[in-house]
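Action item from last meeting closed. Structure (368 res):
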């Protein structure tokens, strides 16, 4: 608050009707002489406020003062402690303004704290929404991946089963051919041709070819053994390593560790983003020392003192005016008396003259 604004605030408090009335009510002993029978407290105060106390502001046209000021004057009758009233009222107004400023500051701080609390609550709400959205996204991704793996596993098992059935069909066909050719043991095309001309000698052959040997050369025994094993097989999962990988991924998808960590957070305020300045300001406002006893709004340059002489009645002035008025009144009375006497004498002379004229005229007629 700038000094000029502080002075204006105190001046407004000194001029305030409510402040004056509250001081009047709080110090009724000082205002006993203003009370009149049949009047209420407010009516007695109205007379005092209207005729006794006056706020004087500096003339803006005159630059005789180096600083702004406010002056308070009070006229009071004899027998009243006007000095105590005026000084007490000024202290009361300053204290009242201090309390008002403190109240305004408390309201400002509380409003700011409520605003910060609202922003923190909004941040918590946003974090909660983001957390729930992330958990939902992770859960949905896990469900989608699990469904894809299960579909792949089902398709892969069906493929392996079809491959096993096809292999069995191939074995049945090869077994039939091997039986017709009389091949019981694994053999080769060259050895099959030499079976008819067996000369009793031991011969070791090595065949090099770029063509696959037909399946029936495996012989009936080997083919039937493989066919029997395929018929007894209950699952084809071990024949493809991809099935093991799918089983591993499905096992990992049973529990999402990231979701568990998000749900196990105890103090979620630590994970709020961008709220550190808000927390710092909130801590500063809560620890703010708002001691208004040291707040000095204005400086009282001069305390009210008991005047050396009353402003009224001014005895010398009254005596001087009385003498002047007496002289003027005496002169006026003398002048009026002189005028009256002169007027009466003149009127008598005229009356005598008027009375004498007819007599002389009549005598003159008689003589004629």
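Sequence:
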């Amino acid at each position: 608050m700038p000094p000029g604004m502080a002075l204006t605030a105190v001046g407004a408090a000194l001029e305030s009707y409510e402040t004056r009335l509250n001081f009047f009510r709080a110090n009724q002993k000082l205002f006993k002489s203003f009370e009149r029978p049949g009047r209420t407290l407010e009516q007695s105060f109205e007379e005092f406020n209207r005729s006794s106390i006056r706020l004087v502001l500096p003339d803006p046209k005159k630059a005789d003062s180096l600083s702004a000021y406010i002056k308070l004057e009070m006229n009071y009758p004899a027998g009243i402690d006007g000095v105590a009233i005026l000084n007490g009222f000024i202290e009361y107004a300053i204290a009242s303004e201090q309390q008002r400023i403190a109240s305004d500051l408390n309201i400002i701080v509380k409003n700011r704290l409520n605003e910060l609390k609202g922003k923190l609550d909004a941040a918590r709400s946003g974090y909660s929404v983001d957390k729930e959205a992330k958990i939902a996204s992770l859960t949905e991704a896990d469900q989608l991946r699990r469904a894809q793996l299960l579909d792949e596993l089902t398709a892969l098992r069906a493929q392996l089963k079809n491959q096993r059935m096809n292999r069995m069909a191939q074995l049945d066909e090869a077994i039939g051919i091997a039986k017709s050719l009389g091949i019981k043991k694994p053999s080769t095309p060259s050895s099959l041709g030499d079976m008819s001309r067996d000369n009793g000698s031991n011969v070791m052959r090595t065949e090099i070819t770029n063509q696959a040997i037909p399946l029936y050369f495996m012989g009936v025994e080997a083919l039937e053994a493989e066919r029997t094993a395929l018929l007894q097989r209950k699952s084809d999962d071990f024949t493809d390593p991809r099935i093991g990988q799918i089983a591993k991924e499905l096992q990992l998808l049973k529990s999402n560790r990231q979701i568990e960590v998000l749900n196990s957070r105890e103090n979620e305020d630590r994970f709020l983003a961008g709220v550190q300045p808000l927390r710092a300001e909130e801590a500063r406002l809560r620890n703010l020392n708002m001691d208004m006893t040291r707040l000095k709004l204005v400086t009282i340059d001069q305390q009210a003192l008991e005047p050396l002489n009353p402003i009224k009645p001014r005895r010398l002035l009254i005596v001087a005016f009385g003498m002047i008025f007496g002289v003027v009144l005496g002169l006026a009375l003398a002048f009026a008396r002189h005028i009256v006497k002169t007027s009466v004498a003149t009127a008598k002379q005229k009356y005598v003259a008027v009375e004498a004229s007819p007599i002389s005229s009549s005598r003159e007629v008689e003589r004629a």
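Note appended to the action item: Residues 35 and 44 are 5 Å apart (CA to CA).
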